[in-house]
UniProtKB/TrEMBL annotation:
Protein name listed in UniProt: PUA domain-containing protein
Ranges in coiled-coil conformation: none
Pfam families recorded: PUA
Domain PUA positions: 79-156
GO-annotated biological processes: formation of translation preinitiation complex
Species of the source: Vittaforma corneae (strain ATCC 50505)
Record-level Gene Ontology MF annotations: RNA binding
Amino acid sequence: MKGLFDKIGTKTCCSTMSKSDKKKYNVAMGNVLDMKTEYKMVQITGKLKLIRDSEKFLFFEYYNRIYPTIQNFDKSLFKTVVLDEGAVGPLSRGADVMAPGVIKYQNQSVHFKKDDVVGIEILNQGIFAIGLCLIDFEEMLLKKEGPVIEVYHIKNDMLDQNLI
């Protein structure tokens, strides 16, 4: 999938995040938002929202699923899949993560389930992208080919650079 944040038009709405929205995020993510801090919710489309504090974007919500930004990724909250440096080019051009790349470093990746939100780490470089698992880890090992993770957000896209 081409990244969500490659070419974003103008935002449709920006408002202060309500206490009930903060509670929703805290229940879903494990108390990640301070209830006393003011956060902004930026509505991009009917399916895409961004959450930011005064400095940077923290999360995005796409089809009612919450994802961290690369800058706000926490390995204690989300699983991580490791790929080698050869994945940077294809990911930067909009490719999804394919099974052979994950299988190569399966011992360094956390086993994931279908619909898990994961960070995609480039070996010795850190988190490079955020995506959604399309299949279970075990199914990937059996199939050994095809797309495994749909990528929504990559390093240096408009969201990562705070250009939205």
